[in-house]
Amino acid sequence: MERFLKRYNDRITGILTGFDRMLFRGSLRSISYVNGLQIFLNAQHVLLKEFAPYVERLTTALKTHAADLAQRTGRPFLYLSASRTSKEDVIRQVLRTAPVREGLVAILSCVEPCQSFTVRRDRARKQISLKPHRAKCLHLYFYYLDREWGLMHIRVQTWVPFTVQVCLNGREWLARRLTQAGIAYTQRDNCFTAIEDVGRAQRLFDSLVTRDWAPWLDRWVHQVNPLVVGPARLRLPSGYYWSLRQNEVATDVMFRTPAALQAIYPALTQHAIQQFSSPHVLRFLGRRSSSDEITSRLTQRSAGVCVRHSFEDNSIKMYDKYGSVLRIETTINHVDSFRVFRATTRKGQHHRRWSRLRKGVIDLPRRVELACAANARYLDALSVVGDPTPSHRLLDPVSQPTTHHGRPYRALRPISPDEAPVFRAILRGEFNLHAVRNADLRAQLSPTADSSDPLATRRLSGRVTRTLALLRAHGLIFKVAHTHRYRITKKGHHVMSTALRFRETDLAVLAA
Fold first, then answer.
1. Looking at the structure, do residues 86 and 234 belong to the same domain, yes or no?
2. Is the same domain home to 458 and 506?
3. What are the Cα distances from residue 407, in Å, to 326, 410, 419?
4. Average pLDDT over residues 406-435
5. Per-residue pLDDT averaged across 269-291, rounded?
6. Of 351, 368, 386, which residue sits at a domain end?
């Protein structure tokens, strides 16, 4: 993001990166699959024909505990007839009519879809068995005003496997820490439009990444779910497994005035919609390819105009928050295609290697690292928008012969049909991320080449080698040390993208 910050340094007062919305999911993994639940029922001496009455007793214990908690604290216990009803709006109304400074605000209940189990009859085998079942059941929402986190809630599924969710907001946490530290700030909703000491605020924010989440989350669940600490006849297997179902990591660029941001934001949104294709979005998220559809759309929100790129239940969003804050927000929900460098055991041997990223909170720092890198790449890609540098200052120098390491090289022809395919291939998103090799360019420039012909392959390889040397001599790419890979320089990005834009822009636009 350094390029973007350097470009608009005179308009920016600070930049803040950290959690926005955080949704933790707690699951009792030992009863979250058929065989595990069957083992638990056997241990409890519960027959399958007694499954429904047994689970109903557990559900009753949960609802009774919630009613007792509401009565003991004198807070409302409300049933919502429609699950689509905005629970935040209901809670805000409760706070207006029955304010509270700290503690339980209210308990809401509503019927919502859930993943559960049921007992089905197998007529062929003449027996009954447990089956996974997509159903609806009652969910309890415990809303709290916490001294550390502000307004938060815990959602409890009242039917087996009794999954829970804890929803927090990182910006609300930071606001309270800033107040404790005596750092002045201006906040609108979950957005800071100004902070007195941005560097110190960022250090406070970073401490959330390394927090020990599991014990803290367990303490909250013990307050709302008596089944994990209750009597043995109603006790569930102890120990929730905590995963991060959704985490939003936002980078807020705070501009000095709304006018300073609004002067460039229309151009930013136009560039993001028109120029950020699927390879670009994949590059932002550190991916080479995806079989899922990648979509980009522009929407109008109450807080500003939003550009959203999404795929595989992950997304990158850009919007102007309250006029003066440019927010880039990455949400990572689907983690299977990402990797983390961690200790593993293979054939009895301990190794540290790149392995699949886990959903558990143990890999939360890596998810934050990926999201922060995506935000930074997105901002860097926006740094070229509205660049006042005349095009001839970029293209004229490379249109002249040059010398590199004592060897002369011809001039480039930036907008010619001979150079354009090379520029277009090198600018592909996966090469920006993983660098480009001779073989990669051969596959892009001559996809129909006969790889079984050694002579043709050698000639094509030599031609690509000379092309790479030419681009390197003009400073458009550089060789990665101790590898056979090449990366694009900042100059290369500007020259090649400008040349391609000239070729692809309509004459009517150029003549306007």
1. yes
2. yes
3. 47, 10, 21
4. 84
5. 70
6. 386
